[in-house]
Each structure stands twice: as structure tokens, then as C-alpha cells.
Amino acid sequence: MTESTQLVPIAIDDPARPARLHSPEISIRRKEEALPFTISVVREEVRLEKAVSIRYAAYARHVPAFAAKLTEPEPNDRDAGSILLLAESKLDGTPVGTMRIQTNRYKPLAIEGSVKLPENFQDATLSEATRLGIGEGRIGNVAKIALFKAYYLCCIATGIDWMVIAARPPLDRQYEALLFDDLFPGEMKEMRHGNNIPHRVLTLKVGRVEPTWRETGHKLYDYFFRTNHPDIDVSGVESGRQGGEVDQTESLRIIGLKA
Q: What is the pLDDT of residue 29?
């Protein structure tokens, strides 16, 4: 992995200006919120090492036998179509969370090595979030929520139709809380990329997140759609719709956080 130029931060415009969400009848005044860490796409080896270290530490707490296989970067960390996110403390630069996102732009999702997705997914653009690892304590929990927002922003930026997740109990409950649906209700599937541990397969349609969360009064709606987080920077991810890279400013415009 070669070192690249510094990522371009999100452009911040006047927070007093109203921002329009997907529903034309909604006009809100957004707020800006600083986080105790930054989240951006990994492009340098030193930051890849940080992502691997926090990933290993998180898995070691819950599945130590599997964690022993995660001490080094995996091939998917460098694959075309993969986006590796890293949350780093502003205080000292230590890693506090990571997530890897794989799209099906170049090859099938890892989950498709274990299950056959239904027909309506065959021609759709898909993304799978894997290797979620967060630090312990409150900052880890805050980082987890912020990483989910970054995942959503990446899906918007790359034109993803569906998020597809494999989650083992009890971690599956966090996806239920985000209103993911069971793809195979009542069934657990062994995942080859998850050490053959049985997982639930859950999905969420990207274009329905905002309206569904708004209609249900989801507790994270304001965090995702009415709050600008300059410390979450997914600029430069590869667009699945038009090719090349996308500017996060356009992602924010799509979801209503920039006029």
C-alpha cells in the first residue's frame, strides 16, 4: 500500500443555514459536533498497522481463537473495492475503532462464499461491513456509532443499494437496533470468513434509512442526518456509479447536510 496525499477534510458551511433532507417538506437547522477522535480511510501502512492492532484486541476479548488469525493484515484490507476505516484518538493518535467495508464492484462479497443471496440482490450494488473492532469503554461505544455513520456515508458516496451484514450473537442486536432485517429469518449460517461461526445474515436498504428512521423516530436520526461531524472524513472513496473518486461534500449534499 503506497502512501497518499493527505485526505481533504469536509467543507464546513454556515451551520445556521437550513439543510433539506430527502423529504421536501422537512427543513431543519443542522448542528456541528466535534468528536474525541477522527475517522478516515486508511491508505498508509502505519495506519493499516493501527487498524490491525485494534481489530486484534477487540476480537481477542470475544473470540480469542479466531483473533490469533488476525495479527497481520488480511488480503481484503488491500483489495480493490475495499474501504478500511480507522478511528484515531485526537489526544494521542491511538486507534479506538476500525471497520472494513467491501463492495461487490470487483468481486462478490465475502459473505457470498457462505450463502447464496436471493435473486433481487444479484444485480444490486452491495456492501458488507466486516472486522468491526472498537476499544473498551465509552470512547469505544462512541466510535462504534460514528463508524456506522461513516459506513452509511461510504454507501451513499459509492452508490450502494443494500448493506449486507453477517453478525454473531450477541453482536447481532446492534444491527437490529439499526433496523436491519433478517435475510433468512430464524436461520443461522456458518461464515467461512468468520471462522465458521454461525451468524445471522441481515440487510438494510440504503435508500430507506433516512425515511424509515424519520418515520420511526429512531434515536440516531439526528446524529446521522441533522448533525455535521467534521471529524468523519470519507472523502476519496471510489465511486461505484461514475468511476474515480468522490468528494465527501457531494455525499453530504445527497443526504441533506450541504445545500
A: 57
